[in-house]
Amino acid sequence: MDIENGEPIESAGEQEIDFIIVQLLETSVDFRQWLVSQAVPDLELSSYLGSVMHATYAGEGESDVEFGFRSVSGDRHLVLIEDKIDASKQPDQVERYFNRGQYRVDRGSWDSFTVCLLAPESYVSTENEAEFDSIIRYEDVLDFLEDATHDSAAFFSKVFESGMRRGSSPTTDASDVLRSIADQFQTRTEIPDLIQAVDLKKRAGFRSTHPEHPDAVQYDVYIGETGMSGRSTVRLQIASDEGLTDSQREALKSIASEHVDALSDYESYPHRKKNIISTKVWHEDAVQNPEYDSYVDAIVDELITLSETFHPIFVEKSID
């Protein structure tokens, strides 16, 4: 293998993914909080109690990953994670996860539990959504890692992307779709100052050349998977900028959070460093909407809405 041009892990499996999840749980406070918010959104983490890979139970199989935490109410909560890339479920596999969780609660080890599926978007089915308490997609983890300050975040992202290639995801290169998005956006936008800021492989990003608009603020589209079954994230970013101080970054985040209510279907993430406001475009829903000829049209509409809402706000409230 060519070390200079090769990937460190060409085909990651579930065990590699499990190890990364446990390593992040053990080393990153931000990841613990994020994972709890995704797996058990109704509970808030007070203290982390530990994690384990491949927890085995006599007669009930094993959990890929288990981790526990104490909630702010004082309850001890156990999360059992089933990690799937491409293998089909074994008979009664989900039921045995619930049996293991109930066994731990009945023995008094935990007060409550959650069974969560971790899998690429392309793996998740309507049946999965009905069977599991919660679902975390590989694409969601990649979104987190893009913002993360963890030293190994870039490497972990490559491993997750490798796992997605091994699964049934048809593409990790969305350059053709993103080129269409960029061309249509630049044709339709009424803001003359926006120029392309990133390459067109998985993202289309635009920044403003207006002298009063902060250089760090960008308007961005991320595509985890193309095609009808895919989804895209349209987001407002505060990109890395050597000249941006922590206080200036916080000021930009404050401006954004103050005005996010002007947009429906957008969520604000003030704890994040980079991707602070976003919404999802589900490709299948967009195609079924008579307003759009394709999901590209829906993505461009969202990008125009986002930029035309926030561009004048940032120009007016520029920071020093």
CATH class categorisation of the largest domain: Alpha Beta
CATH architecture annotation of the largest domain: 3-Layer(aba) Sandwich
| CATH topology grouping of the largest domain | Trna Endonuclease, Chain: A, domain 1
User: What would you call the shape?
Assistant: globular
- What is the radius of gyration computed over CA atoms, rounded to a whole number of angstroms? 21 Å
Assembly of the depicted chains: single chain
In a nutshell, what does this entry contain?
The chain has 320 residues and is α+β, with helices and mostly antiparallel strands.
Could you please describe the fold and organization of this structure?
The strands form two sheets. The chain has a six-stranded antiparallel β-sheet, with helices on both faces. Strands 1-2-3-4-5 form a five-stranded mixed β-sheet, with helices on both faces. The protein is an alpha+beta fold and 320 residues long. The protein starts with 13 loop residues before the first helix and ends with a helix. The radius of gyration is 21 Å and the shape is globular. The protein has ten helices and eleven strands. The chain has two domains: 14-166, Trna Endonuclease, Chain: A, domain 1 (3-Layer(aba) Sandwich); 175-316.
